[in-house]
């Protein structure tokens, strides 16, 4: 596929950056998506459902699609819903979606410290990038849950050391992607002798992403990432988010510019959009009214019990609804909030929904055109 590309063809990331606001879809690869609730919905973790979501997003002009990675035991987070017990692997899912989509940038989450070697991921990633015609990106995750490390027979790794290891891992991948010769490198954590990767990525290096809030995580983003998935220091209330995000975004971008680089920040709104504001808030409260209490308790404890620095400003109620910022209202109100988040320094929206396909269709038909009218998006859908 890569041989058919013109050398001057605009990359998916470059095309996304032509818009005032990048638009991404947070795929529901995991059972229950973001909300430990039994409120009625058709959202499914299955591949066919996720493929339909990706194709709908592509139809409506989304720039990218992304799914999280997790490693949970039997029953997931428990409760009557067995929240997140099933989940598709994001790397394998991206490979499948690469063959079904044509325009979306497909970003795979990989916990690089769970037994991976840089040669493995450099090879697999380059293959997916080749299959997709240069539309693959990697979300580098270090992991923080002791239970996940122990699933692989590993002991948890200290927070800042994880990012030092991720930096070495990334450096080695980049050398492998760039080198036309065999590569020998000896690092503190990985070594390789006469290593070589073919095919090469279509455009030299795939898009690199990470999610972080800690100083070590932000330094990693400043050094390597093209996009960083951020969280609101003010929690999920959008009024508080737009107050706290400007300083947070500025800090991240200043770190990258000090290294002579540019990094774009992308935040994750849970969009609950309806024809009327009353209907939207009714849908919001329906999620809370049907909370799976056991699953919600375990879900919150799983994120707040580790040493990660993200999501600390969120209340338990906000965790049940899910997503990093809650945008509830009419199509016009959603777009107004997008504009305010952009003014607060966010370069992109990575949206998620509760009932994915119908919510995505409403979003595509009613919100996306208003984004164009507001100057947040350009060109044809």
Automatic annotation (TrEMBL):
Source taxon at top rank: Bacteria
Instruction: Give the keywords, sorted.
Output: Flavoprotein, FMN, Monooxygenase, Oxidoreductase
Could you cite one Gene Ontology molecular function of this protein? monooxygenase activity
A family per Pfam: Bac_luciferase
Record InterPro entries: Luciferase-like_dom, Luciferase-like_sf, SsuD_RutA_monooxygenase
Q: Does the keyword Iron apply?
A: no
Q: Which residues form the Luciferase-like domain?
A: 24-347
**PANTHER family to which the protein is assigned, alphabetical:** ALKANESULFONATE MONOOXYGENASE, ALKANESULFONATE MONOOXYGENASE-RELATED
Please report the name of this protein according to its UniProt entry.
FMNH2-dependent dimethyl sulfone monooxygenase
Give the species this sequence originates from: Saccharopolyspora phatthalungensis
